[in-house]
Amino acid sequence: MKSIFAIVIILFTSLNFCGTKDGETSSRTNLNEDVLILRKLHDDYIQKRSQHNDGGNALFIFEEKLKEILENSHYINNDLYKALSENDFFLVKSEDDKLIFIYWEIIDYGCHHSYKSLYRYSDEDSLFVDYFAGKANIEFSEDNGAHPYKVHKLNDSTYLTFNTQLVCSSSRLLSSKVICFNNESKGICLDCFENSDGLYTSVGRRDTLNLKFDTVTKELFYPELTPLIHEGEDTGILKTTGKYKKLVYREGKFIKN
User: Where are the strands (E) in 5-82, listed by range?
Assistant: First the structure.
């Protein structure tokens, strides 16, 4: 009797294991198919913009497909990150793999470079997807902006992003925002800096501009700037002095030390 019971248990476990494996394989297959569709939609947008056609609708279809993929709870962040990266999309993620960003350039006919991006936060209890920069169904807008290139973890549900943007050919913009996922709020924190828009720093394109963060002391360092003077006149462009100022993260906010 015990032998029969043991055999039943083994068979049940084996069937359950196979079902799980088949489910995982199916999910990965669907993800790969979705990403291939996404790649084609993005290529269609690039082609239309390069031919000076109206690329707005093509862009919006691409964004809708991307959001659909990110909102699919069957897709886990690591698989998403791998599949999208292998198809040459621009991504960055947090060290705990809970938060991933994907961004794309809005093609302009001139020298201006702007970006839109979406982020996805996923853990055991929640899945949250939203625009990090830009808005749905809008191609060119003041809401388009810098894309994230680095994510630092502040605590279990709060992150610090470093973002960059090339503005025309003369200057570069760096910014930093706090993004959090807790019981009080989800998304970009509007009161984690003295400026509700976050920390913004802009200098001439040829100047060196870096943001730094100390993960132990929770200190954010940003460059001190001074006007760029050429032949006795203010050019309207800022340059770095070589010195850094800092903000310290305390009680949920970055404050001057």
Answer: none
Backbone φ and ψ for 195, nearest 5 degrees, come out as -95, 125
User: The whole model's pTM is what?
Assistant: 0.82
Give yes or no for residue 156 having a pLDDT over 50: yes
Q: How far apart are CA 175 and CA 165, in angstroms?
A: 9
**Percent of the chain at pLDDT above 70?**
83
Condensed to tens digits (0 to 9), the pLDDT of residues 167-200 reads 776 667 788 999 999 877 899 998 898 766 678 8
In sequence order, the β-bridge partners of residue 201 are 174
10-27: pLDDT as tens digits: 444 554 545 555 656 667
Say if strands 99-106 and 186-188 run parallel, antiparallel, or are unpaired: unpaired
Burial (Cβ within 10 Å: 0-12, 13-18, ≥19) of residue 241: exposed
CA distance 257 to 245: 9
Q: Evaluate whether 215 touches 238 at the Cβ level (below 8 Å).
A: no
Alpha-carbon torsion angle 211, 164, 137, 83, nearest 10:
-90
Buried b (16+ CB within 10 A) or exposed e, 46-84: bebbeeeeebeebbbebbebbbebbebeebebebbbebb
d(CA 74, CA 5): 34
Rounded Cα distance between 93 and 98, Å, is 8
Query: How many angstroms from the chain centroid is the CA of residue 223?
Result: 23
